[in-house]
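In response to a reviewer's request, we include the raw inputs and outputs for one of the modeled complexes. The two entities were modeled together in a single run.
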Amino acid sequence: MTTAAPPMAAPSLALRWRRTLANPRLWRGVLAVAGFFLVWQISSMGALPFMTVIPTPVEVAKAFWVFLAMPKYWQSWAESAQRVFWGFATAQVLGIPLGLGMGWSRSFKELSYPLFELLRPIPPLAWVPVSILFWPTNELSIAFITFIGAFFTIVLNVLGGVSSIPKELVYSAVSFGASPAQVFWRIVLPATIPSIATGMMVGIGITWNVVIAAEMIAGNAGLGRLTWEAYLAGHTPGVIVGMISIGLAGYVSSALVKLISIKLMPWRKII
Amino acid sequence: MGDNGKGIKQAGRIEVSGLERVYRVPGQPPVAALKDCSLVVEEGKLTVLVGPSGCGKSTLASILAGYDTPTAGSCLINGHPIKGPGRDRLMVFQETALWPWMTVMQNAVFGPKVSGALDRRRAEEHALGLLEKVGLKDFRDKYPAQLSGGMQRRAELCRALVNEPQIMILDEPFRGLDVMTRELMQEYLVRLYEESGMTMLFITAEIEEALFLADRILVMTNLPGTIKKVLTVDLPRPRDLSVLSSPRYLQIKGEVMEALYEEGAKTFGKLKNAFNLLGSCQTDSEPAGHGQ
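The model returned the following structure tokens for the whole complex.
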């Protein structure tokens, strides 16, 4: 809560801006980002000999401007985002029930956990060759690898979430006469939502890592491919543009996932 | 059983005899949390089980609630053996067990709703009445995390009372609350008890709390837990300051302390021996004249 909150409905836009600009937290962040670009500019201009292979921020900005006008650039965004979306969504749709099932039923866990643990250490990129051989299209195989990246994380988080529900929360529901189905839907599932949110948050990061790598190896489009092609063409500013775009894409999707998890947990105001 | 004139349909009776609960962990010697434990919790009475921490009080509570099963002995509720948890006896735990994703009201009406005892509107009316009694009416749409510790405990009492159980088992429910909140909670509890007339089994490690609340006090001994002494607290209610400083109060307190002290002395005796041993080892290295 803010100290001395005035009893008005909503502060005016100008006032809100003034408050934001007066916040030292903002300026510390700005200072760090500005300092980073300044050091980068000076060192790649020749102050540091080994940095001259890296284009200056100004060159990158110019290249960015050119990219922004290219339809291919926006197509790359769409391609990668689509792959991330389908891989991530499928991982949640399959992984959340699997994790809940493993946490809910001991015999189901005994059945599935050993196999799960055997497959889990295999890195997503190790699935690339088999995936290309197995799936009929390149598109499907990249989405599948992306799926692998998020799947194991969400299952493990959900399973951990179910197992760490305080036993009193379940006991009291049983005492009140709740049936097993009511215990599952009204107690176990909501109690697991924070773990689902954590699993999604970690998962979305992994998904972007995986999709970029997979595109560099096997893709014919996407932000990863765009970056790789810029490298093959010797266009270093383009490589940096690709990197920045991937960073932005990851940032935006993390923010979206965070928004979803806040909506899922109205009882938790701060995560 | 039957209507006792206090507005509740039934008050339950607990009879425990020869109860034993041994925990066996492979590779470790078995630990008996309860051994030859026998007691009666009379219907409509507020019975307080007092004992040092780790004496098996909570184990007894979870067996009575139906969450744990004894390794020997019998447990009867109204003459029937316990078969798992049931709505006839509800438990309030040490830590808050309110569901954090439900508002106070949603928590309170969960029991009547899942059991089908009351329809939604009747359940909410009933719950609102109870919430008002404990000063939480205005907090009915808040989430548990938005309440103070004392408020959470009151909400939890309401959540259980809505179901009109025959027996309430309260396992150190006020532990961790500050002294003032705790005293307030004890007064709330006595009021709720007097209005409902249900059977209550209150578990605590605090003698003053036991004396303020109890009709009867059961003193429990250390591991393995068994009942050492049963006292009737014939102090008048309300137990205001004059009651709590009366000779009778001090007499009963003395008896409880005596029973507990013997237990404490046993453990302390073991400790003292250990200290003596430690002392004799260190005597040589201690500089002369040190201490005292």
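As requested, we also summarize the result in words. DSSP finds seven helices and ten strands in chain B. The helical segments of chain B are 57-65, 104-115, 120-133, 149-161, 179-196, 207-213, 247-282.
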